[in-house]
Amino acid sequence: MTTTPEKEEPGASMTFFEHLTELRKRIINSLIAIVIGAFVGFYLSSYFIDFIIRPMQKALSDAGLKPELIYTHPAAYLNLMISFGIYVGIALASPYVLYQIWLFVAPALYKHERGAITGFLFSSVFLFFAGVAFGYFVALPRVLHFLVSFQGMPLPFLSHGPAGVVPMINVSEYFDLILTILLVLGLVFELPVLVFFLSLFGIVTPKFLIKNFRYAITIITIVAAIVTPTPDAMTMLLFMSPMIGLYFLSIGVSAVVVRKRERRLAAPAEAR
Q1: How far apart are CA 263 and CA 260, in angstroms?
Q2: Which structural domain, as residue segments, surrounds residue 259?
Q3: Residues 42, 95: contact at Cβ < 8 Å?
Q4: pLDDT 10s digits, 172-187
């Protein structure tokens, strides 16, 4: 006796203008959340800036230098607070914005597609902030320590750089540096999500990822060399290590996706 597989109900159909109205509503809600988050971020920006500059202050202290950052334009610090408020606002509002995206696309999806999108939203946020955390707590201190202690190219018989040459760190330029490092690492940590979608559409498989592991290591090395802001090998290896770990994690993600897809495709054939 064969059982008929349960058919999934498609999402509710909407007219073109209803889609536009719904999209407008979700965009407005998202913008309101970002604006509110930006005001909160601006109000708390001095605390966040104090937290962000701690790795730089520690690097300066370890190098025997005065742990202070400077700004050279009268409005530079105010501009930094505004910029920081906007970035913090986007970060604070991102879960709500992703929820609005979910509310917009969910009615048109099947049940298994809704589960995939929900996992995508939560995984994307988690992995991005995991990359930012890795950058702040692990990569950034190493990078700053190397850059501050370098102080020019010393001669073979000297233990330090040219006399009288000391770093004066501009807080705006420092913010641009760490923003680049944290953003790049946050995006790099999205690799399993990218592989998830490639596997979902049958573009890659676990066998493909394992077979091309050597090429992947070459690409990871090139990417690490590009994004690493220092020329030393140890810092580049520090950037490479999470990429390699994420690649192995991506193989596992691909295996799970491929297995579930094969089961779903095999279910109608077994029912017949």
Answers
A1: 5
A2: 190-272
A3: no
A4: 999 988 888 888 888 8
